[in-house]
Amino acid sequence: MAHSNPKLSEIDPVWARITDEARDAIVAEPLLGGLIHGCVLHHEKLEAALAYRFSQKLASAEMSEQILREIADEAYASDPDLGAAARADIVAVYERDPACLRFIQPVLFFKGFQAVQAYRIGHWLWRQGRKDLSYFVQMRVSECFGVDIHPAARVGRGIMIDHAHSIVIGETAVVGDNVSMLHSVTLGGTGKEDDDRHPKIENGVLIGAGAKVLGNITVGHCSRVAAGSVVLEAVPPMKTVAGVPAKIVGEAGCSQPSITMDQLLRGEI
C-alpha cells in the first residue's frame, strides 16, 4: 500500500506558514523579491534561513558571511533546541506584539527576535568552550541591534522583546520561558561583585520599558515589573511592582501577564 508523503505544514507548521507568507509578500511588493527569496524561499527549513540571516546581519570586515554561516549551520545541526526555541519565539512575537501580523515579520524585520536568535548561537558557542568567538557574536549583536546579552546568560523559549533597543542582560542572569520585555530593560548587577550577581526572571514575567532589575534576586513567575521601575529586592510570584525603588503595588492582574501584555496599573498606586 502506497503511503503519501506528509505535507510541510504537518511536519513544520511554523516554517510552512512563513514560506506561504513569503510568496504572498512578493506578490504584494515585488521590489522585496530578492530579499525574501534570499532570506526565506531559497532555504529548505527555518534553521537554514536563520543561519543565513545571522550571517547577513552580523558580517563585517572582521568576520565574513561565509564563516558566520558555517558557525550558525554547525550550531543548528548540533543542537535541535535552537530551532525549537526560535519557533517558540516567532509564535510568541506574533501572539503578543500587535504590530506583528505575520510569522515572517520577526525573521525579516524585528531586531528583538533576530538579536535573541544570534544570542542563542553565541550561547551555544559559550557552552562549547569557544568563548572568544561567543564574545565576538555578543559584540556584533550589540553593534547591529543595540541589544547586549552576555553569551553565558541563560534565556528560555517563547521570548518576546518588543522594540528591543538598549536591552542589557548580564552574565549570570537567567530568563525563564514565555517572558516578555520592552525596550531599555536592564538585568544587571549592583556593583563589582563576582560570581552569581544578576537577576533570575521566572516564567511568564512581563517587564515594562526602561525597567532595571539589579542584583542576584528573583522575580517570581507571572509577575509584572512596571515601566521605569528599579527592582532591588526579590518579587513574589504573580505580583505587580512599581517605583524607584520598586515596591509591591498589587497582584499581577491576570494569570499570564507576559502573554496578555497588560501594563496598566488600575488603582494599585
Automatic annotation (TrEMBL):
GO terms for biological process: cysteine biosynthetic process from serine. Its EC number is 2.3.1.30. Keywords: Acyltransferase, Amino-acid biosynthesis, Repeat, Transferase. GO terms for molecular function: serine O-acetyltransferase activity. It comes from the Bacteria. It catalyses: L-serine + acetyl-CoA = O-acetyl-L-serine + CoA. SUPFAM superfamilies: Trimeric LpxA-like enzymes. Pathway: Amino-acid biosynthesis; L-cysteine biosynthesis; L-cysteine from L-serine: step 1/2. The keyword DNA-binding does not apply. Belongs to the transferase hexapeptide repeat family. This is Serine acetyltransferase. It comes from Litoreibacter ponti.
